[in-house]
Structure formats: C-alpha cells, structure tokens
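Private note to self, pasted from the team thread so I don't lose it. Backbone tokens:
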C-alpha cells in the first residue's frame, strides 16, 4: 500500500475485538493484537469486503432469536422508533438490525443490535456504519445509489 491514507472519516468499533478506520479509499482494520490490516477499498465499491463463514452467521442468528425474547429487547422496541431514521413506526414494525452485519463478522450482542424500521433495515443490508453514513450523504446530495 504505497498511497497514503486520505483523511479519516470515522472510526467504527465493530464490537468483535477489532475496529476499522474508514476513508474514501481505504478501510484499515486492527485486530486484537493491534496488528494493522490494510484493505484497499476501490472508489465506489462498498461491497469490497470479506464475508463471515456460514457457521458464524447461523450461530449468531440463533443468538439473535434468543436476544429478541429478552426484556432488554422489549425495552428497546417499546418506543417504536427506528434507530436510523428516527421515525415512529410502532414496535410491531421494528426489526432487529445488526449494526455490524453478521455476514461481515458482527455478533448478536446488545451493543451491536438496534431497532430499525423494515425500510431502513432493508436498505442498510450489509453496510457498516461508515458506509451507511456515506449512502445517506449521497441521498442528501441527490445522487443515485
């Protein structure tokens, strides 16, 4: 990686023992030991990432089903407000979103889940918070996705 990183937009704690610093061109991850793992992110290619294995996803989906049955989750959805758009949609119209998606290594923990309306959850898909913010920024500027 010979090119210097452009200014960092945001640091994202993934809640899985590592975090990413994202810029326009690069996503740089740090693991438990603090080892830097640069990953070039070609411009306009939010889909450039490694996916978690199927066992991880299945295990975390089972944890999410259990988490949805807890009093904690009930308190999260009680107000009926989407974490992302802030609209009051009613608790029955909220879904559990994984802030760091399972397919990208996220876990089904209290710190990595948020109530989201079906529309936001469907649009966010597998995006990290930084990528979601960039998507919303583009929408605000009138650009197509």
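Design output:
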């Amino acid at each position: 990686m010979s090119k210097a990183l452009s200014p960092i937009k945001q640091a994202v704690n993934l809640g899985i023992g590592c975090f990413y610093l994202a810029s326009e061109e690069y996503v740089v991850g740090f693991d438990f030991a603090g080892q830097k793992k640069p990953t070039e992110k070609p411009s306009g290619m939010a889909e450039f990432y490694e996916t978690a294995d199927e066992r991880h996803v299945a295990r975390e989906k089972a944890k999410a089903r259990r988490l949805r049955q807890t009093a904690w989750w009930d308190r999260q959805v009680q107000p009926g407000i989407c974490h992302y758009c802030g609209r009051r949609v009613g608790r029955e119209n909220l879904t559990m979103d994984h802030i760091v998606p399972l397919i990208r290594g996220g876990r089904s923990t209290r710190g990595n889940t948020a109530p989201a309306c079906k529309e936001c959850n469907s649009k966010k898909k597998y995006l990290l918070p930084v990528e979601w913010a960039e998507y919303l920024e583009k929408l605000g500027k009138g650009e197509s996705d």
